[in-house]
Amino acid sequence: MIIMRSKGFTLIEMMIVVVIVAILVAVAIPSYQSYVRTVNEGRAIQAMQNESVLLERYKARNFSYINYSSALSGIQGYTFTLTDQAGNTLTSNNTTGSDWSIIAQNTSADSKQASFLITSNGTRCKNTAFSNISKTDCGTGAETW
């Protein structure tokens, strides 16, 4: 009588491996998305805070924010808007140059990633619903940062 030894994996063993990999992926993807969201939001906040420091330096030298040229550049997942709180650009003839507002709008596909607002009056807030953010506050559902 010849005894045959099986070589390879059974279907059950392969299915167990597939289930284990699926569980690992189900845990890893949301965790990675949360990590990317946190990194992008941190970069946006850092850019806004750096810009606010530059704005205050400019006002200390010129006694106004009029004709300030923004140094804000693109951060992945965000576009920035710098205006006075009436909505005029600081280089506009209509601006008073007495205040400013920076909005970082979430442009990523991640609806959980927040948009941010910082103003010369000290307002710092975020909201996942960009439509709620105005030049002066973040509206309903806002959080401070």
TrEMBL record:
SUPFAM superfamilies found in the cross-reference section: Pili subunits
Keyword Transmembrane: yes
Residues in coiled coil: none
Ranges that cross the membrane: 12-32
UniProt keyword terms in alphabetical order: Membrane, Methylation, Transmembrane, Transmembrane helix
Database matches in Pfam families: N_methyl
GO CC annotations, alphabetized: type II protein secretion system complex
Gene Ontology biological process: protein secretion by the type II secretion system
Organism superkingdom: Bacteria
Keyword Phosphoprotein: no
Record NCBIfam families: IV_pilin_GFxxxE (TIGR02532)
Protein's recorded name: Type IV pilus assembly protein PilE
Organism whose genome encodes this protein: Acinetobacter boissieri
